[in-house]
């Protein structure tokens, strides 16, 4: 996610008090971060927590709405991390809730879509990171980028856009049954022409085919142009 320039004033905040700005995560990605944490020693863990900061918007009732690192935050909660550093990108705590959410959407700081890709009301957003729901297509979209299916892009929630695209191509059961096979299919779909509207698309743009009538008309015009025109001389009166 592309974040605005800001002076980093880090504030320690309880991890379980952070508010999500999305409804789902890819549990596969969360599990990988969890596994990585288990390989770290005590000093490396402290260093990791100290070097990561969670960008957030300060909202009504002085709540911190994080706009990135949802997967990391959930993984750390599962690993019993209690406090993290937060940097406030914007203080909107003084706004009426209706205007607050309007500004959140205007700045692309919120993604209120459920695990089926349906738009939901802001009230449906989870209150805690532990309330985030697994979306297998978000896991697939994340692995697809790692596998070279598309390039990393600054577009907010770009992985969710890819997840929605893949949702049209296969079922969640296929992903859960054989993830590697689903990833292979996803790679084929990722380079298709119909995916070229998506952020980070890496396919090859194909030239538009010329219609048969256009070819025929073109040949006819070229033939008529190549024939010499006879000029009739006028008889003198």
Explain how this protein is built.
Helix 5 packs across helix 6 (158-167). This protein has two domains: 1-134, Conserved hypothetical protein from pyrococcus furiosus pfu- 392566-001, ParB domain, CATH 3.90.1530; 135-199, Helicase, Ruva Protein, domain 3, CATH 1.10.8.10. A hairpin with a 3-residue loop joins strand 3 and strand 4 (63-66). It has helices at 27-38, 42-51, 70-78, 97-106, 136-146, 158-167, 172-177, 179-190, 212-226, and strands at residues 10-14, 24-25, 53-59, 63-66, 83-91, 133-134. The protein is of the alpha/beta class. The chain has a four-stranded mixed sheet. A two-stranded parallel ribbon has the order 2-6. Residues 208-237 are annotated as: Disordered. Residues 216-237 have a biased composition (Basic and acidic residues). This is Chromosome partitioning protein ParB.
CATH superfamily of the largest domain: Conserved hypothetical protein from pyrococcus furiosus pfu- 392566-001, ParB domain
Write out the strand line-up for the largest beta sheet, numbering strands in chain order: 1-5-3-4
Give the low-confidence spans.
233-237
Largest sheet: 4 strands, mixed
Biased composition (Basic and acidic residues): 216-237
Protein name: Chromosome partitioning protein ParB
Pfam families: ParBc_2
Region (Disordered): 208-237
């Amino acid at each position: 996610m592309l974040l605005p320039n800001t002076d980093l004033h880090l504030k320690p905040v309880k991890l379980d008090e952070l508010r999500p700005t999305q409804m789902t995560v890819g549990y596969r990605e969360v599990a990988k971060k969890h596994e990585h944490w288990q390989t770290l020693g005590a000093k490396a863990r402290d260093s990791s927590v100290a070097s990561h900061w969670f960008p957030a918007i300060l909202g009504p009732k002085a709540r911190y709405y994080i706009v990135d690192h949802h997967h990391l935050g959930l993984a750390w909660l599962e690993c019993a991390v209690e406090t993290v550093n937060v940097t406030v990108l914007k203080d909107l705590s003084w706004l009426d809730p209706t205007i607050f959410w309007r500004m959140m959407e205007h700045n692309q700081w919120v993604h209120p879509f459920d695990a089926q890709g349906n738009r939901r009301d802001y009230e449906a957003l989870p209150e805690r990171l532990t309330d985030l729901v697994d979306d297998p297509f978000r896991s697939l979209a994340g692995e697809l980028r790692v596998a070279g299916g598309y390039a990393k892009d600054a577009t907010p929630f770009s992985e969710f856009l890819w997840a929605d695209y893949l949702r049209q191509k296969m079922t969640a059961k296929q992903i859960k049954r054989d993830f590697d096979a689903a990833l292979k299919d996803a790679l084929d779909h990722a380079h298709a022409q119909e995916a070229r509207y998506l952020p980070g698309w890496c396919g090859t743009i194909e030239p538009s085919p010329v219609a048969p009538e256009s070819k025929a008309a073109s040949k006819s015009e070229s033939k008529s142009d190549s024939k010499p025109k006879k000029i009739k001389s006028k008889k003198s009166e």
